[in-house]
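Model it.
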Amino acid sequence: MAFDLSNYEPVAVRLAKWLETHPGTRVLTEMLTAPGADVCVIKASIWVADELVATGHAEEVRGAGNVNRTSHVENCETSAIGRALANAGASGGSLESRPSREEMAKVNRYSGGDQPTQNGPRLATDKQKNMIRALAKSVGGLPPSNLDSLTSSQASRVIDDMKQQSAKRDDAGPEEPF
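Modeled.
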């Protein structure tokens, strides 16, 4: 993905700016899906005094990305608030600045890319590298020589491939002892 998350404003920053310039604001959220569902849809409404200024909707899937493993409802609520703020005009002066940082991270998450950092793409985590080492050992091989330079998504693909190799090996039955 060819974008830098640091170019997008977090929802918390947008909300703080909005509240500072619009006294009497109320932000109301409503879950539109059943509580406990794997897919969460939330509607956020921005009210100033008794006037509805804007609404925004968001959808998140439980387990889609690190945050959504534990907090997909909270993440969805934040995204809905960010969308409502953008619809109210609190998103900067250009179309490129309309999405919040959280929305762009979601785009990145669903596109299978690595979330960019200020120093380039996110590298594989220690947990991913340890998993690759363990899987390589279990199939009697070595981890890739470029292990320390793999991006997070590349490491995920390597892990998936190694798990498939391991499963094929297990399906073949035990090796002959001779």
